[in-house]
Amino acid sequence: MWIVLATRWKRWARMRYPHVWIIGFREGEAVPQAVWQESLSRLKERLSATDLGCWVQAIHPVAIRDRRLYGEVPSVMHLEQIRNRVQRNIAGVLEELLGPGAELVLSVNRLRVQPVVEPRLAPDRPRCSYSFESFVVGESNSLAHASAREVVDHPGVTYNPLFLYGGVGLGKTHLASAVAHSLGKSHRLRIALLSAEAFANDLIRALLSGSIDAFRLRVRQLDVLIVDDVQFLAGKERMQEEFFHTFNALHAAGKQIVLASDQAPRSISNLAERLQSRFESGLTAEIRLPEAVLRLAILTSKAKEVGFDLPLEVARWVASKIVSSVRELEGALHRLIAGCRCSRRSLDVGFAKEILRPILRNAPPRTVEQVQQLVAERFYLSQEDLVHRGRTSRVRLPRQVAMYLSRKGTKATYAEIAAGFGGRDHSTIMHAVKCVEARRHEEPEFAALVDELAEKLAAG
Ligand code: ADP
Ligand code: MG
User: What is each CA distance from 201 to 84, 110, 112, 295, in whole angstroms?
Assistant: First the structure.
């Protein structure tokens, strides 16, 4: 197809060449695509492949006015990442092209019905960070990972919807994005990856502008809908209703739906029962806190990704101290890298302690989950074993120890601990605490074991 850019005689040109796609623009108004292409080629030299592939290439230029390039991005997540990571570089390039004071103005004002932009990376550059290749798999995330892979291999067939849930910074957005990127690469599908908030914003805009039918049409044309942070829908009835119909329409047509949330469907309060049951109708996969081995593997893999020489004993030490999220592990690694850049000292555990002291001292209080993880590791069990109902003697004692440590080593109430152990009665927790206390008095070895665990927990 030919595209002609006409300055003055757009209407004449359209009549004269009806088979040619004519785009008109007023004189003095630059063509956004051309400026953007030039910006991209200049940005290539200044940004990492990750920033370019994941974020910058997702910007769709819409217009240029008064030295402002207006662009659209597919989600609020894109908006935030672009603001934090690359906005300044982009503004620099735009100033070169459009003159001083030029800037980029972004909005998430449309559900972009288009395949996710595939990062085109030079072979020697690192890959887009939100890919399956950069996702390290361990016990705590293996179900989520395997099911996300399955969705890529058989979209709309095996797990529909796939509902990923887990605490903050554990890799939900990473996996959801990896699904979008892989599907965008291997199949010709219309994919939307957006946060529930972006969905809600689009919906509100459509309602206000009377274009709700167009909104529905756009959404229902999709082959794959991936919605992150669906807990955002809690308490928003109108959004839930629209989402319910969207869900049903896509699901009935065999289109793949992937959802991510910080809680399981049943635990999202103020979420309509009918949505909860829809969300549970495929596969729900939890991502739990990363276990020690995984924490170590993630740290070494991230260090390798950025070419940082992280001694194994330092990696081990960091992995033993930072247990609550992968995001915090990454934060610690970045601190170490920055700390080493500013100093000639070689990195050992002592130096790492100094660099990370500020973040370790403010470590948040321990959680019931951390206790479970610690105890499970010590007794060679899985966290599931501790939480769920099995009553064999192999799990009974470790479970009681975990309940005891949850009471003594965290700020959780009996009721919260009971909820953390599969919704048991809080009297069960009180009973466990008594049993462990009694046994501590009777058996010094047992007391030593419990103390050792309590110390480990306190050290984080
Ligand atoms: P969530 O959406 O669950 O809050 P994210 O997906 O944003 O968490 O993950 C936080 C950070 O940790 C991201 O930079 C992500 O790449 C990284 N991350 C999480 N899990 C893993 C993993 N298993 N392997 C590699 N990186 C991970
Ligand atoms: Mg997230």
Answer: 21, 9, 13, 36
**pLDDT class of 145 with cuts at 50, 70, 90:** very high
Q: What is the pLDDT of residue 124?
A: 30
Atom of ligand 1 nearest to the CA of 145: 23
Contacts of 138 (CB under 8 A, 6+ apart): 290, 291, 293, 294, 297
174 vs 131: CA distance, rounded Å: 7
CA 458 to centroid of ligand 1, rounded, Å: 25
Q: Is 170 in the pocket of ligand 1 (CB under 6 A)?
A: yes
In which order are the strands placed within the sheet that holds 103-107?
60-65, 68-72, 103-107
Whole-structure pTM value: 0.60
Cβ partners under 8 Å of residue 21, min gap 6: 1, 2, 3, 4
Centre of ligand 2 to C-alpha 210, Å, is 31
Is 165 touching ligand 1 by the criterion CB < 6 Å? no
Atom of ligand 1 nearest to the CA of 174: 6
Please identify, by atom number, the ligand 1 atom nearest to the C-alpha of residue 129. Answer: 16
